[in-house]
Specification:
The strands form two sheets. The chain has a five-stranded parallel beta sheet, sandwiched between helices. A two-stranded antiparallel sheet has the order 6-7. The relative contact order is 0.07. The chain is globular. It is mostly helical and 679 residues long. Among the domains are: 175 residues, 3-Layer(aba) Sandwich (Rossmann fold); 62 residues, no CATH class; 102 residues, Serine Threonine Protein Phosphatase 5, Tetratricopeptide repeat (Alpha Horseshoe); 81 residues, no CATH class. The N and C termini lie far apart (59 Å). The chain has 33 helices and seven strands. This is LuxR family transcriptional regulator. GO terms for molecular function: adenylate cyclase activity; ATP binding. Keywords: ATP-binding, Nucleotide-binding. InterPro entries: AAA_16 (IPR041664), P-loop_NTPase (IPR027417).
């Protein structure tokens, strides 16, 4: 560990200190973060800590909770020592029960309790390398845990690349920067590991490596091991010795040369391993029930310095993440597709992994692959991963064999993107499904009207647009139920709430009555509760209660709408604990749109029971969320509730200021806030 005296001193203090439990190592590729993690692991192990290692891999960055599973998996035998609530949380996350995914907060608390239980017998060190590739759900939970570790019994150390954006960038964890080696240290390291280098070569390596330890060793080895005399030329990558490529690119050039020299069979083995996320950190755990491709007959790559042997499993692993990415980049498109097809067969029992590989292996439209992606998107939705759901639905649309299925899947993707606050992406999806000079497909109407409604409070045009789409759909497919029809109906009901126009409500009620059976029972609950609960609310409370008995079968937006219905029939307090558990997950990793309305509901219930300080905090959180994601309608709705709260507390001036702001925006649009509530 030449030239790392300061970092080693700080890391040694980190292991022994009681007040500093989480730390992030940040530096460029090859600067030595993994070596520092190895050093800390040895320190902690020598001090009697249990050490758990995990590594983020790019291939899993879209799979919800993949990274968290690695960290928690070795601790699962102790889960039975937790209370029933936390045992149920882990059962849900690990797929052993069909409950709704827990919130970031409830899962984070369960993980903290598990860590506390295990560390009561032996202190723990959690090491996470390549944290930039961790999935968003895992980052949210691990960040939550890292901020709340107390005492010295559990430590968390995360390694991050400085050139790749990461969810940990905003996790508010302390950071230890890891920079390049000072010149003197770089010279000492090179002389120690590569003694006897030609003076010119030594100067060239030092100049091109710029203090990066991996570059010092790999560039010098590339030249030293080359007996043809061309190593120095390859190092430069240019006839002009003054050209200084970025260190990662220089290393990729070195690794790419070695990879191209391998036999075809070995390169294919490496490619399958790279695309399946085979690690570059020996000894790291896999998620429970998961498996990765096991590279075989790759001794040639081991001899070339591209692979290492995992001391725990004895398997081949990549020597460094940059080797893995270079393997993929140097492969041809056909080679990558063939590798993905092979991996889809390996993971045929895993709906999300197999669909991901099938999608990458497929060029032409294929209904079987599109359906697999649609199933993966449904799985992601129920696990709270909006980004993955949108990506898989979009790819499913691209691979659809007919126009109708393509339009439906694009509509599903746009619908999910809108609920996730991805307005620009939702708009692009809508435009891609609407050819010039043709009628807008009903699925596109859902999104375009949704955006006009929530972005700008357009309750007049969007009402007419949705009514027309429902009428056209009813004429074209009389008596047929569909997801698109359900979404149009529910959006129309939401629009009518804000318009507060009795004539619009009567038109909507008549329209839904004319449709008959295709209108879902839940939509009829929304109609009766949201419209005129005095005239139509008989029995609604019981209908809401029956629907809430099977949350596992509901999408996130269904739960939100039912909660609004519960508010209208004065039973919201029964479901507030569930809303509180759900809102954290949706706000941080999932369908952010639902969390906005859930926060409205929580705030209203807090106001009703006199929890005014809590209601103020909830309202401010909602205002920040709605404003930052561009939901102007919901942002002003939140201001209206904050104004109402101020009036209840006797803060007259603040109430008047908020009322003026809301009125100036709402009145020209015909929007009424305080008498209605969102869907």
């Amino acid at each position: 560990m030449i030239g790392r005296d300061d970092e080693l001193r700080q890391l040694s203090a980190f292991v022994t200190a009681a007040e500093r439990q989480a730390l992030v190592l940040r530096g460029e590729t090859g600067v030595g973060k993994s070596a520092l993690l190895d050093h800390v692991a040895k320190l902690a192990s020598g001090a009697g800590h249990g050490v758990i290692r995990a590594a983020g891999v790019e291939a899993e960055s879209g799979l919800p909770f993949a990274g968290l599973h690695q960290l928690v998996h070795p601790l699962l035998p102790s889960v039975d020592g937790l209370d029933q609530v936390h045992r149920d949380v882990f059962a849900t996350v690990y797929g052993r029960s069909g409950g709704k995914p827990p919130s970031v907060m409830s899962l984070g608390i369960a993980v903290l309790d598990l860590l506390s239980l295990v560390s009561s017998a032996k202190p723990l060190l959690l090491l996470l390398d390549d944290g930039q590739w961790l999935d968003a759900s895992s980052v949210a939970v691990i960040g939550f845990v890292g901020r709340r570790l107390n005492g010295g019994s559990v430590k968390l150390l995360v390694g991050l690349r400085s050139d790749v954006a990461s969810g940990f960038d905003t996790a508010a964890l302390p950071v230890l920067p890891v920079g390049s080696l000072p010149d003197e240290a770089a010279r000492r390291l090179l002389d120690l590991r590569r003694p006897g280098l030609d003076t010119h070569v030594r100067r060239l390596v030092l100049d091109q490596a710029r203090g990066n330890p991996l570059a010092l060793l790999e560039l010098s080895a590339d030249i030293d091991g080359d007996r043809t005399g061309g190593g120095a030329a390859r190092l430069l990558g240019s006839p002009d010795a003054s050209v200084r490529l970025p260190v990662p690119r220089r290393l990729q050039h070195v690794y790419g040369t070695r990879i191209k020299a391998l036999g075809d069979d070995v390169r294919q083995e490496l490619l399958r391993g790279a695309l399946d996320g085979v690690g570059a950190t020996p000894g790291t755990a896999l998620a429970p029930g998961s498996r990765r491709y096991r590279m075989r007959d790759a001794e040639e790559a081991l001899a070339a310095g591209l692979l290492s042997i995992d001391p725990v499993s004895g398997d081949f692993v990549f020597r460094h993440p940059l080797v893995r990415s270079t393997v993929v980049q140097t492969a041809t498109p056909n080679e990558r597709r063939a590798a993905h097809a092979a991996l889809a067969r390996v993971h045929r029992d895993d709906v999300e992994r197999s669909a991901t590989h099938l999608a990458a292996a497929t060029v032409d439209p294929d209904e079987e692959v599109a359906a697999a992606l649609e199933a993966a998107a449904e799985s992601a939705t129920r696990r709270g991963s909006a980004v993955a759901a949108v990506a898989w639905l979009t790819r499913a649309a691209e691979l659809s064999e007919n126009r109708e299925d393509r339009s439906r899947r694009l509509g599903d993707a746009a619908f999910a993107a809108g609920h996730a606050g991805l307005f620009e992406q939702a708009q692009r999806l809508v435009r891609s499904d609407h050819a010039a000079g043709t009628d807008e497909p009903p699925a596109s109407v859902v999104t375009s009207a949704y955006l006009a409604f929530f972005e700008d409070g357009d309750v007049r045009h969007s009402h007419r647009q949705v009514v027309t789409a429902i009428e056209n759909l009813g004429e074209r497919e009389p008596g047929k139920a569909s997801d698109v029809l359900t979404r149009l109906v529910n959006l129309l009901l939401a629009i009518d709430q804000y318009a507060g126009d009795p004539a619009q409500w009567e038109e909507t009620r008549a329209l839904l009555g004319s449709l008959g059976d295709p209108v879902p029972a839940r939509s009829l609950i929304y109609q009766d509760a949201w419209g005129d609960v005095v005239r139509h609310g008989a029995g609604v409370a019981e209908r809401v209660e029956r629907e809430f008995t099977d949350l596992s079968a509901m999408e996130p937006w269904d739960i939100t709408r039912l909660s609004v219905a519960a508010y209208h029939v004065d039973t919201l307090s029964h479901y507030r604990p569930h809303l509180q558990r759900t809102v954290d997950r949706e706000a941080e990793t999932g369908f952010v749109r639902n969390s906005m309305t859930m926060l409205h509901l929580i705030m209203l219930d807090q106001m009703a029971v006199g929890e005014w300080d809590e209601a103020e905090r909830t309202g401010q959180r909602d205002l920040e969320l709605t404003s930052s994601h561009g939901y102007a309608l919901l942002a002003h709705h939140t201001r209206a509730y904050l104004g109402l709260l101020a009036a209840m507390r006797g803060q007259v001036e603040r109430a008047r200021e908020l009322q003026a702001t809301v009125d100036a925006w709402a009145r020209p649009r015909g929007v009424g806030f305080l008498t209605q509530i969102t869907d």
